[in-house]
Structures are given as structure tokens and as C-alpha cells.
DNA sequence: GCGACCACCTGATGGC
DNA sequence: TGCCATCAGGTGGTCG
């Protein structure tokens, strides 16, 4: 499922391919993915706009669309959720069976938005309003940015009775982590995912802070993790799955202590831990 | 206000 | 072989 490293990989791919290309038309096959507009209005407002810039906030992909009229620039906010994919298509010989929306580009290519489970979303706002969009407005700092500070992180943990895993998935204290990277970060920090935030020591917070930065940086470097569904914009798999130490390895042996890993449920999510290494 | 839980959704998998 | 139940998970909404 796309977390920060996967979305960042897609952003880089799309930037390489689509910058300055023009969206000439759009066909929408699943209108429920549009959060704040009708299909007709969406097509009217997005068609004939140039892709000026592609950014990212947490797991949200932000596509800036230019216009001849400076005051009507639009921003497309996309969340891939679990199975969303944005694919640059050069020919129409093989259409994905989960195609939900197709952008027809001036270059003759298509940008296909595919989503097996129909959870992915798109919203269209005026430029400048993207940071106020629900879901984005309350996001915490990016783990690889200077805004992510140990002191603030530790204070945030101490305020919460929630499990540390629930806190990491919540996106408010730090954004971009999902099930895979939170399990990996907690294992590397030696922290049990069910431990309450308020019970995390300063030393544990420091270890977790470092491991979050490390797994996210490694994930970006490896172009994300492909566990089942994720593909980048060229249809390629990521590489971080080769570096996973716990996620998806239940019943296999821990690389550190050689005891079997266990799968438990924390924050309503399947969670893989080493019961010996994580306290 | 906070935390826990559920719905959304489809494909894969396991059990019978 | 075929059917059915369960599981996977990010986010927003609801409930206590």
C-alpha cells in the first residue's frame, strides 16, 4: 500500500514524465472517487490545463494545474489509499481492469488512475487552498524534514494514552507512515507497538525518532515497498521489501535474536513483532 | 476531547 | 471443484 516513500516515488516518476504536458480531456469511470465535485464539473475545470508542478504532502499527491487566467489555477489532490496507481500509458493495447479515470494528454499518452479496491480519492481545489483541505490541514511534519523535531515528537507522545502504533498511524504527530513503515520503525527501535505513548521514555522516543527517519529514507531510496499491490508510474515494483525485518514475516525467525516473529492486532491493524526484541 | 471501532471495497486465501 | 467466510488496510465518521 502506498505510504510516503511510495507516493514520493510516484511523484518523481510523474514529474519526469508529465511536467508541461497538457490535459486535453478526461473520462471518469468511477465517480465516487471524486470528493468535492461532480464528474462534469471536474472534466470542465481540469481539461485544457497544463501540469505545472507535482508535489506531495504526506501521502497526498498534489498536482498543480496552470491556466491562461492566473487567478483560476487549480490543484488536484490525490490520495492513493491502499491500491491506487497512477500509470503513464504510451499505448492503449492493454487496459487495466481497475481503470477508474483516464486523463488524455496532448503528448498522445494517457495518465491512468487505477484502483482495485475503490478507496482512492481525488479532490479539486483552487491554488492556495490545498493546505486547508481536510486530511491535509491536520497533518504532522514530514519525517525527513527539519520540521520533525525530537522534542516536539517526545512531548506529543507523552500527551497520548493511545498505543504508539496508533499514534504513528494517526498522521498528526508525524505524517507519511502506514502499517509497513510503522512496524519496521518500531522493531528497529525495540518498542512494543501496544505500549502507550505516555509510557515511552525519552531514550525510546529518541530511538524511534531515528528509526522513523531511517526507514522512510531507505524506503525512498529503494523506490518504496511492493508487498502485494504497489507499483510506480512505470508499473515497476519497489525494492524496500528486500529490507523488511518484520512486516510480512510472521512465524519466520527474527534477524536479531533468531526467535519466531508473531502477528498480533494493534490499532485494528495486523502487526508483526518480535516478542523478545520489542518491549 | 479522546480513544475504540466500523464502513468502505475487491481479490486472495483457507476451510469444508 | 466450488462455495463461503475471513483477511488485508487508510481514512473519516460514529459512538461511548
From TrEMBL:
UniProt record, GO biological process: base-excision repair
Keyword list, A-Z: DNA damage, DNA repair, DNA-binding, Glycosidase, Hydrolase, Lyase, Metal-binding, Multifunctional enzyme, Zinc, Zinc-finger
Signal peptide range: none
Active-site annotation: 2 (schiff-base intermediate with dna), 3 (proton donor), 59 (proton donor), 269 (proton donor)
Domain (FPG-type): residue spans on this chain: 245-279
Function: Involved in base excision repair of DNA damaged by oxidation or by mutagenic agents. Acts as DNA glycosylase that recognizes and removes damaged bases. Has a preference for oxidized purines, such as 7,8-dihydro-8-oxoguanine (8-oxoG). Has AP (apurinic/apyrimidinic) lyase activity and introduces nicks in the DNA strand. Cleaves the DNA backbone by beta-delta elimination to generate a single-strand break at the site of the removed base with both 3'- and 5'-phosphates.
Database matches in PANTHER family: FORMAMIDOPYRIMIDINE-DNA GLYCOSYLASE
Name assigned to this protein: Formamidopyrimidine-DNA glycosylase
This protein's encoding gene: mutM
Amino acid at each position: 500500500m502506498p505510504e510516503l516513500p511510495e507516493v514520493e516515488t510516484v511523484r518523481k516518476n510523474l514529474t519526469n514524465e508529465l511536467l508541461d504536458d497538457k490535459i486535453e480531456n478526461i473520462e471518469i469511470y468511477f465517480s465516487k472517487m471524486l470528493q468535492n465535485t461532480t464528474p462534469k464539473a471536474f472534466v470542465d475545470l481540469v481539461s485544457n490545463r497544463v501540469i505545472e508542478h507535482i508535489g506531495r504532502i504526506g501521502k497526498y499527491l498534489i498536482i498543480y494545474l496552470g491556466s491562461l487566467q492566473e487567478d483560476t489555477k487549480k490543484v488536484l489532490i490525490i490520495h492513493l489509499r491502499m491500491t491506487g496507481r497512477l500509470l503513464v500509458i504510451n499505448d492503449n493495447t492493454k487496459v487495466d481492469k481497475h481503470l477508474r479515470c483516464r486523463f488524455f494528454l496532448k503528448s498522445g499518452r494517457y495518465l491512468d488512475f487505477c484502483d482495485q479496491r475503490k478507496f482512492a480519492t481525488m479532490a479539486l481545489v483552487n491554488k492556495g487552498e490545498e493546505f486547508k483541505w481536510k486530511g491535509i490541514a491536520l497533518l504532522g511534519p514530514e519525517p525527513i524534514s527539519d520540521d520533525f523535531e525530537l522534542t516536539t515528537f517526545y512531548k506529543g507522545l507523552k500527551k497520548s494514552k493511545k498505543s504508539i502504533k496508533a499514534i504513528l498511524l494517526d498522521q498528526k504527530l508525524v505524517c507519511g507512515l502506514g502499517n509497513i513503515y510503522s512496524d519496521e520503525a518500531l522493531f528497529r527501535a525495540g518498542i512494543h507497538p501496544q505500549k502507550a505513548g505516555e509510557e515511552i521514555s525519552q531514550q525510546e522516543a529518541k530511538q524511534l525518532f531515528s528509526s522513523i527517519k531511517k526507514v522512510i529514507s531507505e524506503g525512498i531510496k529503494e523506490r518504496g515497498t511492493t508487498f502485494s499491490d504497489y507499483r510506480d508510474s512505470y508499473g515497476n515494483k519497489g525494492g524496500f521489501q528486500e529490507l523488511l525485518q518484520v512486516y510480512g514475516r510472521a512465524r519466520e525467525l527474527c534477524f536479531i535474536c533468531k526467535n519466531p516473529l508473531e502477528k498480533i492486532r494493534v490499532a485494528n491493524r495486523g502487526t508483526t513483532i518480535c516478542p523478545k526484541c520489542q518491549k
